């Protein structure tokens, strides 16, 4: 449908080894603008490594990563500028512990985008309102619940006005009652048409939000399909097995 | 945030720094006892002519002891920060340079290092500078050469050499403190900063170091106290700190008991005041976060 457009992220034959461990093994994929790609798979299957290669936090052993038409391997000298266009949300939030919520959001605006304090804070407040925790602007991360911290982390990424957002199991470190507040914010982004790549085990969310679901195992893509096909009628036995494990508890 | 496991940072020789140990809820009896000892000594100084005489002489060294410590510590902080960053640098070359420095300093006794730096390294450096001046004159850069040729050994006072020796030594200790501090920060902090487009140095400067320094503040303070005590070693360079003056004083007066009691109590008072001050600052830092 949108195949004729330039992909926002294109991965070509990507492999990443850690010593003898082949974390990712010959993966290719494309994510088009406004598309939501969900990656699932068992622990250790290479999901994080693949995702982190998309902003070069992990530099691949082989293959290519092209973001918005720019090859990362060929443009190492502007990797910081490229990264500033790619938002990333981590499993453990990784908020800057010594800064307040609002300072967490303005830091990169000020030193990467060279914005003045006033305008940066205005953007930060807008994002905090969007994720629903404007009242915590002056608090430190340690004073917030996990769900609140993750929403701040999302606001921090959004403030940079990224072209694409990467999520690495954003709800896996959360207590069950906080998962929904984070997924709700993410659904808001889906509605806004944000391009997203999301590693998650939240199958309900994947069904509701994904344009495409990828199942990874042992560093390879085993199956990729639209969510309704993927969840109701997967082609591979390995996918069926994994889904039955995950849905059974 | 809780201070990282302090045993990680402590040099074993300094495990008993006053003021930084002990449970908070304990009534500080130790402080009362030490306070009484200090008070008693100062009463002796007031009312006993021998003590009074010794004190009047020795206290002249206080400003040297204090300025030597403060200046050397400030330089050591800068060296320590740079070398600590070198220890965790992405570049193999700088990592190795930093490690060589740290290991050499840690492997040689402080007293020997002070001799070596003050009496070998610094003269060698001044010789090098003056022969460099000779070389400049030979190739026609007369004005620059003339200045350098005059640099000699004696141009560097023993006080300066003492400061340089202490700074180089403690630079290595503090480098280890900074390294441990940087490594105590979760890897995710650096990754989050890099993912936002910060350079390695921007992330270090704005995200990692502020948290690392907070974590190791007590260890940095311990080393300041250690350095105050170790500054007594520079007396072997004939620097007129309180230790050297006390030694000179006993040499002709033979009032060992008076001079060395006063010397002990002076160091004890200084370290105690310093550790109380550090504790206050530390408390303020952790309160700022709440
Ligand atoms: N920094 C690393 N060093 C060594 N091995 C790693 C590293 N990161 C990941 N791995 C290994 O690569 C494989 C894939 O890991 P990862 O991408 O984190 O999987 P997932 O996110 O799907 O759980 C695992 O076997 C893991 O142990
Ligand atoms: Mg993972």
Task: Describe this entry's structure for a reader.
The complex is a heterodimer of chains A (249) and B (290). Chain A is α/β, with parallel strands linked by helices and 249 residues long. In chain A, 37% of the residues lie in helices and 24% in strands. Chain A has helices at residues 47-53, 79-83, 101-111, 117-131, 146-159, 176-192, 203-209, 227-232, 237-247, and strands at 9-18, 21-31, 36-40, 62-67, 70-71, 86-89, 164-168, 195-199, 212-217, 220-225. In chain A, strands 6-7-8-3-9-10 form a 6-stranded mixed sheet, with helices on both faces. Chain A has a 4-stranded antiparallel sheet with strand order 2-1-4-5, with helices on one face. In chain A, helix 5 runs parallel beside helix 6 (176-192). The mean pLDDT of chain A is 95. Chain B is mainly α. Chain B has a single domain (63-289), classed as MetI-like fold (Orthogonal Bundle). In chain B, 76% of the residues lie in helices and 0% in strands. Chain B is built from 11 helices and no strands. Chain B has helices at residues 29-47, 49-58, 62-87, 92-107, 110-138, 142-149, 158-183, 187-195, 200-230, 242-253, 256-288. In chain B, helix 5 runs antiparallel to helix 6 and helix 8 packs antiparallel against helix 9. Chain B is flat. The interface between A and B is medium-sized, with 28 and 21 residues. Adenosine-5'-diphosphate (ADP) binds at residues 18, 21, 23, 41, 43-49 of chain A.
Keywords, separated by commas or semicolons:
heterodimer, A: alpha/beta, 6-stranded mixed β-sheet, 4-stranded antiparallel β-sheet, globular, B: 290 residues, mainly alpha, MetI-like fold, binds adenosine-5'-diphosphate
């Amino acid at each position: 449908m949108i195949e004729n457009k330039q992909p926002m992220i294109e991965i070509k034959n990507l492999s990443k080894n850690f010593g003898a461990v082949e974390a990712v093994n010959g993966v290719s994929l494309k994510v088009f603008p406004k598309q939501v790609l969900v990656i699932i798979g068992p622990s250790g299957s290479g999901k994080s490594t693949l995702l982190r290669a998309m902003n070069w936090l992990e530099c691949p052993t082989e293959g290519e990563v092209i973001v918005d038409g720019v090859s990362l391997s060929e443009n190492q000298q502007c990797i910081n500028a490229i990264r500033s266009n790619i938002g990333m949300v981590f499993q453990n939030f990784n908020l800057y512990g010594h800064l307040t919520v609002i300072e967490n959001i303005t830091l990169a605006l000020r030193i990467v985008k060279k914005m003045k304090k006033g305008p940066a804070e205005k953007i930060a407040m807008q994002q905090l309102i969007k994720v629903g925790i404007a009242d915590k602007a002056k608090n430190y991360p340690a004073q917030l619940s996990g769900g609140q911290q993750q929403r701040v982390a999302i606001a921090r990424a959004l403030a940079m006005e990224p072209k694409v957002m990467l999520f690495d199991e954003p709800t896996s470190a959360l207590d069950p009652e906080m998962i929904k507040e984070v997924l709700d914010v993410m659904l808001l982004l889906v509605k806004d048409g944000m391009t997203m790549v999301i590693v998650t085990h939240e199958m309900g969310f994947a069904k509701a939000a994904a344009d495409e679901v990828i199942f990874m195992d042992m560093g390879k893509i085993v199956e990729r399909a639209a969510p309704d096909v993927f969840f109701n009628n997967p082609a591979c036995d390995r996918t069926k097995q994994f889904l039955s494990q995950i849905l059974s508890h | 945030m809780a201070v990282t496991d302090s045993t990680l940072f402590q040099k074993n020789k300094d495990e008993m720094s006053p003021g930084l140990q002990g449970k908070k809820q304990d009534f500080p009896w130790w402080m009362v006892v030490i306070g009484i000892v200090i008070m008693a000594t100062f009463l002796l100084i007031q009312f006993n002519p021998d003590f009074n005489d010794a004190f009047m002489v020795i206290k002249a060294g206080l400003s040297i002891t204090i300025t030597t410590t403060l200046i050397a510590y400030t330089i050591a902080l800068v060296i320590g920060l740079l070398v600590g960053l070198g220890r965790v640098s992405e570049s193999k070359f700088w990592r190795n340079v930093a490690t060589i420095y740290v290991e050499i300093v840690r492997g040689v006794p402080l007293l020997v290092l002070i001799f070596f730096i003050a009496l070998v390294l610094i003269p060698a450096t001044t010789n090098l500078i003056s022969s460099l001046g000779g070389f400049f004159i030979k190739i026609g850069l007369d004005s620059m050469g003339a200045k350098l040729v005059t640099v000699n050994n004696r141009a560097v006072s023993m006080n300066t050499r003492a400061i340089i020796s202490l700074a180089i030594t403690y630079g290595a200790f503090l480098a280890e403190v900074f390294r441990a501090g940087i490594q105590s920060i979760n890897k995710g902090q650096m990754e989050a900063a890099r993912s936002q487009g910060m350079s390695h140095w921007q992330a270090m400067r704005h995200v990692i170091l502020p948290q690392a320094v907070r974590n190791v503040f007590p260890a940095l303070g311990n080393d300041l106290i250690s350095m105050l005590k170790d500054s007594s070693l520079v007396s072997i360079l004939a620097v007129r700190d309180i230790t050297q003056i006390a030694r000179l004083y006993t040499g002709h007066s033979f009032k060992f008991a008076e001079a060395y009691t006063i010397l002990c109590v002076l160091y004890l008072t200084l370290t105690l005041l310093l550790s109380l001050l550090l504790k206050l600052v530390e408390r303020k830092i952790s309160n700022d976060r709440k």
